[in-house]
Amino acid sequence: MRLALWQGTSPAADLEAALIQAEAALAAAAALDAAALVLPEVWLPGYNQPDIPTRALPLDSPPLHRLSAAAKHHRCALVTGYAERDGTRIYNSAACFGPDGSLLANYRKIQLYGPREKALYTPGDAYATFPLGTESVAILICYDIEFAPHIKTLADRGVTTILAPTANMQPFTHVIRHTVPAMAANHGITIAYANYCGTEGDLTYVGGSLIVGPHGEILAQAGDTPALLIADIPPRDPTRLSTQSADLRAAT
Questions:
Q1: Overall domain count for the chain
Q2: Which of 33, 46, 144, 221 could form a disulfide with 10 if both were Cys (CB 3.0 to 4.6 A apart)?
Protein backbone atom coordinates (compact mmCIF):
# COMPACT_ATOMS: atom_id res chain seq x y z
CA MET A 1 0.00 0.00 0.00
CA ARG A 2 1.17 3.51 -0.78
CA LEU A 3 0.78 6.12 1.98
CA ALA A 4 0.94 9.91 1.90
CA LEU A 5 1.09 12.61 4.55
CA TRP A 6 0.93 16.37 4.48
CA GLN A 7 3.25 18.48 6.63
CA GLY A 8 2.00 22.05 6.64
CA THR A 9 1.91 25.22 8.68
CA SER A 10 -1.07 25.69 10.95
CA PRO A 11 -4.19 27.05 9.23
CA ALA A 12 -4.53 29.28 12.33
CA ALA A 13 -8.32 28.95 12.66
CA ASP A 14 -8.95 29.73 8.98
CA LEU A 15 -11.12 26.73 8.16
CA GLU A 16 -11.35 27.61 4.47
CA ALA A 17 -7.56 27.70 4.21
CA ALA A 18 -7.35 24.40 6.09
CA LEU A 19 -9.81 22.75 3.73
CA ILE A 20 -8.11 24.12 0.62
CA GLN A 21 -4.73 22.80 1.80
CA ALA A 22 -6.25 19.42 2.61
CA GLU A 23 -8.01 19.15 -0.74
CA ALA A 24 -4.87 20.12 -2.67
CA ALA A 25 -2.75 17.60 -0.77
CA LEU A 26 -5.42 14.93 -1.28
CA ALA A 27 -5.57 15.61 -5.03
CA ALA A 28 -1.78 15.30 -5.29
CA ALA A 29 -1.69 12.14 -3.16
CA ALA A 30 -4.44 10.55 -5.28
CA ALA A 31 -2.65 11.49 -8.51
CA LEU A 32 0.34 9.56 -7.19
CA ASP A 33 -1.87 6.54 -6.37
CA ALA A 34 -1.70 6.83 -2.58
CA ALA A 35 -4.29 4.83 -0.69
CA ALA A 36 -4.48 7.32 2.18
CA LEU A 37 -3.37 10.81 3.20
CA VAL A 38 -2.70 11.82 6.82
CA LEU A 39 -3.00 15.44 8.05
CA PRO A 40 -1.57 16.86 11.32
CA GLU A 41 -3.16 16.92 14.79
CA VAL A 42 -6.15 19.25 15.30
CA TRP A 43 -5.81 20.43 11.69
CA LEU A 44 -9.24 21.92 12.23
CA PRO A 45 -8.86 24.64 13.51
CA GLY A 46 -5.11 24.38 14.29
CA TYR A 47 -3.44 22.77 17.30
CA ASN A 48 -2.41 25.87 19.27
CA GLN A 49 -5.36 28.11 18.59
CA PRO A 50 -7.17 30.02 21.35
CA ASP A 51 -10.82 29.36 22.16
CA ILE A 52 -10.70 25.72 21.12
CA PRO A 53 -14.04 24.99 22.85
CA THR A 54 -15.80 27.60 20.71
CA ARG A 55 -14.05 26.37 17.55
CA ALA A 56 -14.59 22.64 18.12
CA LEU A 57 -16.67 20.83 15.50
CA PRO A 58 -19.11 17.94 15.78
CA LEU A 59 -18.25 14.98 13.58
CA ASP A 60 -21.43 15.74 11.62
CA SER A 61 -20.38 19.24 10.50
CA PRO A 62 -19.95 20.94 7.10
CA PRO A 63 -16.12 21.06 7.14
CA LEU A 64 -15.88 17.32 7.83
CA HIS A 65 -18.58 16.59 5.26
CA ARG A 66 -16.47 18.53 2.76
CA LEU A 67 -13.41 16.41 3.54
CA SER A 68 -15.49 13.25 3.24
CA ALA A 69 -16.67 14.39 -0.19
CA ALA A 70 -13.07 15.15 -1.21
CA ALA A 71 -11.96 11.66 -0.18
CA LYS A 72 -14.76 10.18 -2.28
CA HIS A 73 -14.01 12.44 -5.25
CA HIS A 74 -10.33 11.51 -5.28
CA ARG A 75 -10.88 7.87 -4.26
CA CYS A 76 -8.27 8.28 -1.53
CA ALA A 77 -8.76 7.78 2.20
CA LEU A 78 -8.11 10.79 4.42
CA VAL A 79 -7.21 11.09 8.10
CA THR A 80 -7.61 14.53 9.63
CA GLY A 81 -7.08 15.72 13.17
CA TYR A 82 -9.75 18.02 14.59
CA ALA A 83 -11.12 19.38 17.84
CA GLU A 84 -14.34 17.42 18.27
CA ARG A 85 -17.39 18.64 20.16
CA ASP A 86 -19.71 15.92 21.45
CA GLY A 87 -22.34 17.51 23.65
CA THR A 88 -20.53 19.31 26.46
CA ARG A 89 -17.28 17.42 25.91
CA ILE A 90 -14.35 18.32 23.67
CA TYR A 91 -12.00 15.64 22.33
CA ASN A 92 -8.70 15.77 20.49
CA SER A 93 -9.85 13.54 17.65
CA ALA A 94 -8.95 12.20 14.22
CA ALA A 95 -11.50 11.06 11.66
CA CYS A 96 -10.73 8.71 8.78
CA PHE A 97 -12.88 8.87 5.67
CA GLY A 98 -12.56 5.99 3.23
CA PRO A 99 -12.07 6.23 -0.54
CA ASP A 100 -15.85 6.04 -0.89
CA GLY A 101 -16.34 8.93 1.55
CA SER A 102 -17.66 6.74 4.36
CA LEU A 103 -16.47 7.20 7.94
CA LEU A 104 -14.05 4.39 8.70
CA ALA A 105 -13.06 5.54 12.19
CA ASN A 106 -13.27 8.43 14.63
CA TYR A 107 -10.49 8.13 17.20
CA ARG A 108 -10.16 10.21 20.39
CA LYS A 109 -6.67 10.78 21.77
CA ILE A 110 -6.02 8.66 24.84
CA GLN A 111 -2.76 10.20 26.10
CA LEU A 112 -3.39 13.92 26.47
CA TYR A 113 -0.16 15.90 26.62
CA GLY A 114 0.58 18.58 29.19
CA PRO A 115 -1.67 20.87 31.23
CA ARG A 116 -3.19 22.68 28.24
CA GLU A 117 -4.53 19.54 26.56
CA LYS A 118 -5.70 18.10 29.86
CA ALA A 119 -7.63 21.30 30.59
CA LEU A 120 -9.20 21.44 27.12
CA TYR A 121 -10.02 17.86 26.25
CA THR A 122 -11.65 14.74 27.61
CA PRO A 123 -9.36 11.74 27.08
CA GLY A 124 -10.46 8.95 24.79
CA ASP A 125 -10.74 5.41 26.08
CA ALA A 126 -10.80 3.13 23.02
CA TYR A 127 -8.71 2.22 20.00
CA ALA A 128 -10.03 2.59 16.47
CA THR A 129 -8.98 -0.10 13.98
CA PHE A 130 -10.18 -0.81 10.46
CA PRO A 131 -9.09 -2.50 7.21
CA LEU A 132 -7.64 -0.34 4.46
CA GLY A 133 -6.39 -1.99 1.31
CA THR A 134 -4.26 -4.94 2.37
CA GLU A 135 -3.45 -3.43 5.78
CA SER A 136 -5.07 -3.54 9.20
CA VAL A 137 -4.93 0.09 10.31
CA ALA A 138 -5.23 2.03 13.56
CA ILE A 139 -5.08 5.73 14.40
CA LEU A 140 -3.03 7.17 17.24
CA ILE A 141 -2.44 10.87 17.89
CA CYS A 142 0.92 12.45 18.75
CA TYR A 143 1.79 11.60 22.38
CA ASP A 144 -0.05 8.26 22.06
CA ILE A 145 2.69 6.98 19.75
CA GLU A 146 5.31 7.36 22.49
CA PHE A 147 3.67 4.72 24.72
CA ALA A 148 4.92 1.22 23.91
CA PRO A 149 1.93 -0.50 25.58
CA HIS A 150 -0.43 1.08 23.03
CA ILE A 151 1.75 0.00 20.10
CA LYS A 152 2.11 -3.51 21.54
CA THR A 153 -1.64 -3.86 22.10
CA LEU A 154 -2.42 -2.81 18.55
CA ALA A 155 0.26 -5.08 17.08
CA ASP A 156 -1.05 -7.98 19.14
CA ARG A 157 -4.49 -7.32 17.67
CA GLY A 158 -3.07 -7.69 14.16
CA VAL A 159 -2.65 -4.02 13.27
CA THR A 160 0.06 -3.56 10.63
CA THR A 161 -0.11 0.22 10.08
CA ILE A 162 -0.62 3.21 12.37
CA LEU A 163 -1.67 6.59 10.97
CA ALA A 164 -0.63 9.32 13.40
CA PRO A 165 -1.55 13.01 13.18
CA THR A 166 0.80 14.98 15.45
CA ALA A 167 1.80 18.45 16.64
CA ASN A 168 5.34 17.77 17.82
CA MET A 169 7.11 20.92 18.92
CA GLN A 170 10.56 21.98 20.05
CA PRO A 171 12.55 20.68 21.86
CA PHE A 172 11.21 17.15 21.30
CA THR A 173 13.25 16.23 18.23
CA HIS A 174 14.08 12.82 19.74
CA VAL A 175 10.57 11.66 18.84
CA ILE A 176 11.11 11.97 15.08
CA ARG A 177 14.74 10.89 15.25
CA HIS A 178 14.48 7.89 17.55
CA THR A 179 11.09 7.16 19.14
CA VAL A 180 8.95 6.63 16.04
CA PRO A 181 11.48 4.43 14.19
CA ALA A 182 12.09 2.39 17.35
CA MET A 183 8.37 1.85 17.93
CA ALA A 184 7.96 0.66 14.35
CA ALA A 185 10.92 -1.73 14.54
CA ASN A 186 10.15 -3.08 18.02
CA HIS A 187 6.59 -3.98 17.09
CA GLY A 188 6.85 -4.75 13.35
CA ILE A 189 4.42 -2.01 12.39
CA THR A 190 4.40 0.79 9.79
CA ILE A 191 3.88 4.33 11.16
CA ALA A 192 2.93 7.44 9.18
CA TYR A 193 3.55 10.44 11.47
CA ALA A 194 2.19 13.74 10.08
CA ASN A 195 3.49 16.84 11.85
CA TYR A 196 3.27 20.62 11.47
CA CYS A 197 6.14 22.90 10.53
CA GLY A 198 6.67 26.58 11.27
CA THR A 199 5.33 28.40 14.30
CA GLU A 200 1.92 28.79 15.87
CA GLY A 201 1.57 31.16 18.80
CA ASP A 202 4.26 30.27 21.30
CA LEU A 203 5.07 26.91 19.68
CA THR A 204 7.72 26.10 17.10
CA TYR A 205 7.11 22.75 15.43
CA VAL A 206 9.99 20.43 14.64
CA GLY A 207 8.63 19.27 11.26
CA GLY A 208 10.37 16.02 10.38
CA SER A 209 7.18 14.16 9.45
CA LEU A 210 8.03 10.61 8.46
CA ILE A 211 6.82 7.29 7.18
CA VAL A 212 8.60 4.35 8.81
CA GLY A 213 8.40 0.75 7.63
CA PRO A 214 7.81 -2.31 9.82
CA HIS A 215 11.52 -3.00 10.17
CA GLY A 216 12.29 0.52 11.42
CA GLU A 217 13.53 1.85 8.08
CA ILE A 218 12.69 5.48 7.29
CA LEU A 219 10.90 5.38 3.94
CA ALA A 220 10.37 9.14 3.63
CA GLN A 221 11.01 12.14 5.87
CA ALA A 222 10.32 15.86 5.59
CA GLY A 223 12.54 18.72 6.66
CA ASP A 224 11.21 21.83 8.39
CA THR A 225 9.10 23.28 5.55
CA PRO A 226 5.76 22.24 4.01
CA ALA A 227 5.97 18.89 2.24
CA LEU A 228 3.89 16.09 0.80
CA LEU A 229 5.47 12.71 1.53
CA ILE A 230 4.67 9.55 -0.43
CA ALA A 231 6.03 6.08 0.32
CA ASP A 232 5.24 2.46 -0.47
CA ILE A 233 4.95 0.14 2.51
CA PRO A 234 7.45 -2.68 1.92
CA PRO A 235 6.52 -6.35 2.31
CA ARG A 236 6.82 -7.56 5.89
CA ASP A 237 9.75 -9.96 6.10
CA PRO A 238 8.95 -12.54 8.81
CA THR A 239 12.64 -13.18 9.36
CA ARG A 240 13.19 -9.51 10.24
CA LEU A 241 10.05 -8.76 12.24
CA SER A 242 10.46 -8.26 15.98
CA THR A 243 9.39 -11.21 18.14
CA GLN A 244 9.40 -9.19 21.38
CA SER A 245 5.70 -9.60 22.01
CA ALA A 246 5.86 -13.41 21.80
CA ASP A 247 9.15 -13.60 23.71
CA LEU A 248 8.26 -11.27 26.59
CA ARG A 249 8.74 -12.91 30.01
CA ALA A 250 7.03 -11.51 33.07
CA ALA A 251 9.17 -10.72 36.09
CA THR A 252 8.38 -9.88 39.68
A1: 1
A2: 46
State the Cα–Cα distance between residues 163 and 149, nearest whole angstrom: 17
Residues that are catalytic: 41, 109, 142
pLDDT of residue 9: 98
CATH number of the CATH domain containing 127 = 3.60.110.10
pLDDT higher than 90, residue 237: no
Looking at residue 245, what DSSP letter applies?
H
Q: Is residue 204 part of a domain?
A: yes
Q: What is the pLDDT at residue 247?
A: 86
Question: What letter would DSSP give residue 71?
Answer: H
Pair type for strands 36-38 and 89-97: unpaired
φ/ψ bin of 171: left (φ > 0), alpha (ψ from -120 to 50), beta (otherwise): alpha
pTM recorded for the entire structure: 0.96
**Angstrom distance (rounded) from CA 17 to CA 114:** 28
Q: What are φ and ψ of residue 94, in 5° steps?
A: -140, 125
